[in-house]
Write a structure and sequence with these properties.
Oligo-1,6-glucosidase, domain 2, globular, about 550 residues, 13 helices, binds alpha-D-glucopyranose, TIM Barrel, 3 domains
Length: about 550
């Protein structure tokens, strides 16, 4: 299939290098069949919204067969679509429609664990201790205490006794929910199975993969105790950047890189025959240097740069992340990525509102977005951020996140509430269900004024801002150098790429914007507090 290679943020190079990628959380984007849960035909019908927005690619969260204990990150069959979301034909039609609009499609791959309902795990339960079926997972003999002190990312022990009907059952490892048993990547069949899965989706035309928990597949030999078992897992606190996580036996082990070298070759063979394919790592690593190991020339094309998302609202913190990131990826000749929100974290307008007001939170969110759009590399956007959606307050009786059930902490439902498209009442055009009926997570009443339809008609809306910003990125970035100069003056960050100057004012009062022609601005007044401004230096 020939795609329109219209310019994105890059003058040359592969499509993914300076792409803007829009993350679709499949359950919550658009619901075609009216059951209150988003689906593939719903996404296909709404793809023109993404083409109009001006993104280059779509990343779809898992839509494979799954009991949905972790909303699809518990896969029971990697080669089929869950009936909740449609069927294989719907997936193929989505890819074709996206390509027809010039949008690439990235799908999610979940290799660290399967669902406990995957045929392999069922066979393992059935076959019993010592069986070859159990060797594909991390089973350990019965004992009064779990085999080691590892904690689940979702809370509690990372070990559960298998429910196989025996009196003294074995333990199995799950770094996430107990319905997500970890695969043993030392077992050759595991690696072979995922190569087949990659090929299955590449043969259906997908352009790339987002690889879930890419830093977790390989565990330290012998599964030794963690020195500090109560240390929050990577990404679950905001101090990871400063911590030394070198000795965590379940994360970032050297063996993971062999897995990705093999996958790199699989993708390269497809790229050689047609459109370029890519993979992006979800790897929560302690610093930019360890992140850069995932993007060496024979591994991933990209890795999420969570340091940008974790940075506080501070010119010097942002400057540090930009400098460290560009230095680290530059060392391995890779390109950077930038991300502020996704389906696992509190939406960025709400994060930036802490200690301020919701209005300032939104202004800062827009400013941080415009700043990241000025940087070389890919920007990943999360659905609804183009509407400036805040984190929703989901009442306890509606929460569904497994981490809520395991820890009693609020969890991630608040960033996963279905999008408001139009109308005065839920489901706000999310699907054809009767007016007044709520989708799988209830939509707040205030979202009526945040719908796509309302914002489309308002030139000052966040949606109008995103469209202008993405258009400016396409227009301006291909003509400027990739090298970035980073300066901090008090609370003001200034990034320069040739004659493009991006000023971000993190302070309390207005400053002079850089002199020259204003190309884009995140708020009404260039140079104002909580504002980013792009200027072509005069
Ligand atoms: C990743 C996903 C998250 C999921 C977890 C387990 O972090 O982004 O949503 O719960 O992996 O698969």
């Amino acid at each position: 299939m020939v795609l329109d290679r219209s310019k994105n943020g890059s003058a040359d190079g592969p499509w993914w290098r300076d792409a803007t990628v829009y993350q679709v959380y499949v359950r919550s984007f658009a619901d075609a069949d009216g059951d209150g849960v988003g689906d593939l035909p719903g996404i296909t019908a709404r793809l023109p919204h993404l083409a109009d927005l001006g993104v280059d690619a779509v990343w779809l969260t898992p839509f494979y067969r799954s009991p949905q204990h972790d909303h699809g990150y518990d896969v029971a069959d990697y080669r089929d679509v869950d009936p909740l979301f449609g069927d294989l034909g719907d997936a193929e039609r989505l890819v074709e429609a996206a390509h027809g609009l010039g949008l690439r499609v990235i799908v999610d791959l979940v290799p660290n664990h399967t669902s406990s309902e995957h045929a392999w795990f069922r066979a393992a339960v059935e076959a019993g201790p010592g069986s070859p079926e159990r060797a594909r997972y991390h089973f350990r003999p019965p004992s009064p205490e779990p085999p080691n002190n590892w904690r689940s990312v979702f809370g509690g022990s990372a070990w559960t006794r298998v429910d196989d009907g025996s009196e003294d059952p074995e333990w199995y490892l799950h770094l996430f929910d107990s319905t997500q048993p970890d695969l043993d990547w030392q077992h050759p069949e595991v690696g072979d199975m995922f190569v087949d899965v990659l090929r299955f989706w590449l043969d259906r035309g997908v352009d790339g993969f987002r690889v879930d928990v890419a830093h977790g597949l390989v565990k330290a030999p012998g599964l030794p105790d963690h020195d500090d078992p109560d240390l929050p897992p990577p990404g679950r606190d905001d101090s990871m950047v400063a911590r030394d996580r070198a000795d965590e036996p379940m994360w970032d082990q050297p063996g993971v890189h062999e897995v990705y070298r093999r996958w790199h070759d699989v993708l390269a063979a497809y790229s050689a025959q047609g459109a370029e394919r890519m993979m992006v790592a979800e790897a929560w690593t302690p610093d930019a240097e360890s992140m850069s190991r995932y993007v060496r020339a024979d591994e991933f094309q990209q890795a999420f740069n969570f340091a940008w998302l974790l940075a506080p609202w501070s010119a010097s913190a942002f400057a540090g992340v930009v400098a460290d990131t560009l230095e680290a990826v530059g060392r391995v000749d890779a390109s950077a990525t930038w991300v502020l929100s996704n389906h696992d974290v509190v939406r960025h307008p709400t994060r930036y509102a802490a200690g301020a007001t919701p209005e300032r939170g939104l202004a800062r969110a827009r400013a941080a977005t415009l700043t990241m759009l000025a940087l070389p590399g890919s920007a990943y956007l999360y659905q609804g951020e183009e509407l400036g959606l805040p984190e929703a307050d989901v009442a306890p009786e509606h929460r569904t996140d497994p981490s809520w059930f395991r820890t009693g902490e609020v969890g991630r439902d608040g960033c996963r509430v279905p999008l408001p498209w139009e109308g005065d009442e839920p489901p706000y055009g999310f699907g054809p269900a009767p007016a007044g009926s709520q989708p799988w997570l209830p939509q707040p009443a205030e979202w009526a004024s945040l719908s796509v339809a309302v914002q489309q008609a308002d030139d000052d809306s966040t949606l109008a801002f995103y469209r202008r910003a993405l258009a400016a990125r396409r227009e301006v970035l291909p003509g400027v150098p990739r090298e970035v100069t980073v300066e901090v003056d008090g609370d003001v960050l200034v990034l320069r790429r040739g004659d493009l100057v991006c000023q971000l004012n993190c302070g309390e009062s207005a400053v002079e914007p850089p002199s020259g022609e204003v190309l884009a601005c995140s708020g009404p007044v260039p140079g104002a507090a909580d504002t980013a401004t792009w200027v072509r230096a005069g």
